[in-house]
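Re: that chain you flagged

S.,

Sorry for the slow reply, it's been a week of failed gels. I finally had a moment to sit down with the sequence you sent. For the record, here it is as I used it:
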Amino acid sequence: MKWNELLIRYGELSLKGRNRKYFIRKLKNNIETALSDLSSFEIKSERDRMFLYADGQDDMEEAIKRLPFVFGIQSFSPVAKCSATMEDILKTALDVVGSGETKGKTFKVEIRRTDKSFPFVTNELQQKIGSHVLRNFPELTVQMKNPDILLFVDIRLEGAFLTSKVYPGAGGMPVGSNGRSLLMLSGGIDSPVAGYLLMKRGVAIDAIHFESPPFTSELAKQKVIDLAEKLSSFGASVKLHVIPFTELQQLIVNKIPDGELMTTTRRIMMQIADKVRVEADALGIISGESLGQVASQTLDSLTAINAVTSTPVLRPLISFDKLEIIDLATKIGTYDISIRPYEDCCTIFTPAKPKTKPKLEKVRHYESFVDFDPLIEAAIKERKIYNLPRQEKDVFADFL
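Prediction finished late last night. Pasting the structure tokens below so you have them in one place:
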């Protein structure tokens, strides 16, 4: 089946008032980012819908695969175009209905006639097209409410447009329409899900990860890069900051008592994240913490960790249980990456009995004997930055 365009519906964006154009422009930019490697396509936006055109059917099929992951799209439909003659409309109607399963399905025709000069009125068109389809697909039965197949025919001045498929979109808001935040991406199951949920509400993200070689491996870092790339598939680029954390982590282990070690580690990470956040022009920090999951995620621990910054720390998973998080991670495609068996810096040097109710005064007391600032500044300066999604490198580029 040859599709000529994709009709994209906005959903929540249609409810916006004077700012609707801003959100639609963001969505258009994000779709262009998601399809940037395709050979050629064009997008036109209107008040309540958007149309995507691609030159080749391969590009059109690839766009159909990617659009369900772009936030801000409620649903979309592939559309076939033909000349506005009854002969072509009847032929195309058979092609469109026949492109999917028809056995045991119910069926209905809906008409929109923008071109009022078309020589048939709506009821006449419905009867002609409906009876023609039923003659060629006798296994179909007509059903006016909630049919399995809704053949929609739009008669415009430039031709007739037919569709029968509706693909669900990701919903939510276009990424970038609600500012930027920095995601603390550990490599575990939770933090990618936290990033996904904030992106769904329109937040663009940078990500920060702490590595401790040789205690953590290149494979552990690659896992995080793959997670950040997976997040970039939801319609926005992601910049990943990888912080060398080995010296700081060894200093913490040597100078801070075991009970407060985990709290101080998180506080130093938060201080570094806050400095990187400023450079990234981000307004908040996103964390995948869930209340009560581990020792560092009690209210007492979170209070002690938060005390190093006045920046808003967004924790969208705070009330989720682990099974809910795993379900969502599986749904968005990050779970299989997160469970690769490589240790990250949060799991090495873990004390046997971390305090679940650390006292802020006591943590500050122990930290007062250590000058962390030079190592913090050095770690930020020596970080590596990865821009995702990765662009395929032309292996012949160096010879041109």
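What I noticed first: The mean pLDDT is 90.

Talk soon,
D.
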